C-alpha cells in the first residue's frame, strides 16, 4: 500500500528437528491440505521456504482460527534439512526466525539434533513450540484425516490415549531436563514462559489445525510490534546458502526479513574477505510444481518484499558466505551500507588467541555457535573460518606448540583430499561432525587420551 509505508510482515517460522523426525512432511502436509481446501494457488513456494497466507491458515485450521482475530498476513515456514546446520538462520542481533517449531518423533524422542536445536533456540531466545509428530504410529490409532487434536482424541480408545500421553509426558520431561518448563499446549497460558507441546501427525494431518492456530496466536500475541517494517524500503536479509546454478553461476539463496529487493538493485553481501558490492542480475523463484518440467526450474521476478525466500543471481558471489548479511543499497550511500555489513560481520567475528585449535564451519552462524561452545569448554581458538578444511588450515594447526592444539575441528564441512594427506604428514588430527556437542566431546576424549 503506497499510502502507508509501514506494514506488518509475515513472521518467519523455522522448522527444526532431528533427521527424519518429519519436518518436510509437516510442510508437505500443510501444502497438501491447502490443495484439499482449494487454496493451493494461495500458497507460494519460495527458495527454502513456504508462505502460507492467513486465509489459508484459517481454512486449514477451521474454527480454531478466525481470520478477524489477526492482522498478521500469515506465516513463512523455513524448512531446515537435518544434515544442514540451521545455525545459518541468524540475522542482525540474533535469530532470523521469529518463532520456531521443534519437531520431535514421539517414538524416537529426543535425539542429538533435537538437543542441538534446543541449545540454539535457548541461546538465540527464540520462542518455540514442540510438534510431537507421528502420533498415528501409536498401535491401535484410529485415523481422523486433518482433524483437530481434541476431536481425534475423542475417537481413540483409552489404551491408545494413555499410550500417547505416556510418550508426550516423556517429551515434556525431556524438555524440563533441558531447563524448559513445558506442557500440552491446551494447558499453557503464557507461551513466553512455557513451551507448548502439540501432538500432530504429518501423515494424517491430525493436529495440524492446532499447530497452525498456536503458531498464529503466538506470533500475533507476542511479535506484532517486531513485524512492523517499511516494506518499500531497501531490503535486508541473510544468506542461507551459496549455490552454483546452471546458467547463472554462483547464486545466493537469501531470506529477506526487511524491505524489498528488486531485479535492478545494487547489493552488499558479506564475503570471505571484504564485503561484496554487486548488481543483481536476476531474482529467481521456484516455479509452481505444475510447471516444473518447463525449460527452467526458476521464474524471474522483478521484486520481492519481506518476509520472503529468494534466489539472487549476481556476479562476484564466489566469496559470499552462508549466514552473512545482505543489504540493498538503492538510494542510500554505498559506503554507509558497506559499513553496516562490516559491522554485522564484526559482530559475528570469533575472538582468536595466539595459540589454540583451528575451527572450520559451514556457515557464519555455525562458526559462532562452535566458538560459543568451545568457549564454554575452555578451548582456545587460533583460527576460525567458514569453509572446508584446506591445506592451509593444516599448516596453521601444525605450528601449535601443544600437541592438544595440533587439531582441526570441522563442523558440517568436508576435508579436501590434499588437506587430509597433509595432515597425515604433519601429524595434525582432524575431527569432523554434524553435531556441535558431539564434535566437542570427541575432541575432549582425545585430549584425555593424550593426557593419560
Ligand atoms: P530430514 O530433512 O532428512 O532431516 O528429515 P525430515 O525431518 O524432513 O523428515 P521427513 O519429513 O523427510 O520424514 C521422514 C520419514 O518419516 C518419511 O518416511 C516420512 O514419511 C515419515 N513421517 C513423517 N511424518 C510422519 C508421521 O506423522 N507419521 C508417520 N507414520 N510417518 C511420518
Ligand atoms: Mg526434510
TrEMBL record:
Shown segment, full-protein numbering: 5 to 456 of 599
The UniProt record lists the keyword Transmembrane helix: no
Record keywords: GTP-binding, Initiation factor, Nucleotide-binding, Protein biosynthesis
Protein name per its UniProtKB record: Probable translation initiation factor IF-2
Protein source organism: Halosolutus amylolyticus
Family listed: Belongs to the TRAFAC class translation factor GTPase superfamily. Classic translation factor GTPase family. IF-2 subfamily.
Residues that bind GTP: 17-24, 79-83, 133-136
Primary role: Function in general translation initiation by promoting the binding of the formylmethionine-tRNA to ribosomes. Seems to function along with eIF-2.
Ranges for domain Tr-type G: 8-223
GO molecular function, one term: translation initiation factor activity
